[in-house]
Amino acid sequence: MQTTSLDLAPQAAEVARVIAGVRDDQLTDPTPCAGTPVAAILDHFDGLTVAFRKAAEKAELAGGPSADAAHLPADWRTRLPAQLDALVAAWGEPAAWEGMTDIAGMRMPAGAAGVVAVNEVLVHGWDLAVATGQTYQADPVVAQACLEFGKGFAVGAPEARDQIYGPVVPVPSDAPVFDRLLGQTGRDPRWTPR
Q1: Is the pTM of this model over 0.90?
Q2: Per residue in 51-69, pLDDT tens?
Q3: Total structural domains in the chain?
C-alpha cells in the first residue's frame, strides 16, 4: 500500500500537453484500448479527473468514469486541463493520502486510490499520445510506483485486475520501467495506430 504521496503535477502537465495536441480529425482514431477511440479516452479523462479528485477530498460521487465518445463534452479542450490541475491540487494535500476513501463505489485506502489516480493519468496519457502520433514522457518515479502497485494488484486481486485491464502483454524483464507497466496494464509498448 502507498504510504507516501506522489507528485501528480509533472505527469498531469505532460498529459495536458498531449490533450492540447489532439486534432479534431483524430477523435475517431483507434487507441491501444481496443474499441475505444480517442474521443472515448478523452471522455474517460473527463470522468476520472473528477472521480479521483473527489476521492482525494473524501467526497462522495455517484458512479464512476465512463469511456464513451458520445459523452465527450464540447468544451473538453479547456475543461480537461483545468480538471487535471484540480486533480493535482487535491492530491497535493497530505490528508488526501491518509485514511480511507471511495472511488467508483469501492472503498479503499486513500494511498492506494492516489496511486490508481496517477496510474490512470500516466497510462491513458500514453494511450492518447501514441494514438495521435505525439511524443510522451513518463515520470520515472510515478512509473516505478505504478509498476510496483500493479504487480501487487495482479497478485492480490487478480479478478479485479482482469476487470479493468486486458491480458498482460509479455515485456522483457530488462525493458524500461514504463514499458513493463504498459505490459502489466495489457498494452503493447510497441503499439502504433493502423
Answers
A1: yes
A2: 999 999 999 887 778 889 9
A3: 1
Residue 144, all three cell numbers: 516505478
- Amino acid of residue 122: L
What ranges make up the beta strands (E) of the chain?
Answer: 100-103, 106-109
| 79 found inside a domain | yes
Q: How many Å apart are CA 71 and CA 66, to the nearest integer? A: 9
- Domain annotation covers residue 80: yes
Closest-CA residue to 117 (of 141, 99, 142): 142
Half-sphere exposure of 11 (CA within 13 A, CB side): 25
List the beta bridge partners of residue 108: 101
- Our measurement of the distance from residue 126's CA atom to the centroid of its chain's CA atoms, rounded to an integer in Å, reads 9
User: Is position 19 within any domain?
Assistant: yes
d(CA 55, CA 64): 11
Could you tell me if 193 and 133 are in contact, meaning their C-beta atoms sit under 8 angstroms apart? yes
Spatial distance between the Cα atoms of 127 and 114, rounded to a whole number of angstroms: 20
Distance CA 131, CA 129 (A): 5
Helix (H) or strand (E) holding 124: helix 110-131
Q: How far does CA 194 lie from the centroid of its chain?
A: 23
Phi-psi region at 104: left, alpha or beta (left = phi > 0; alpha = psi -120 to 50) = left
| Strand partners for 103 | 106
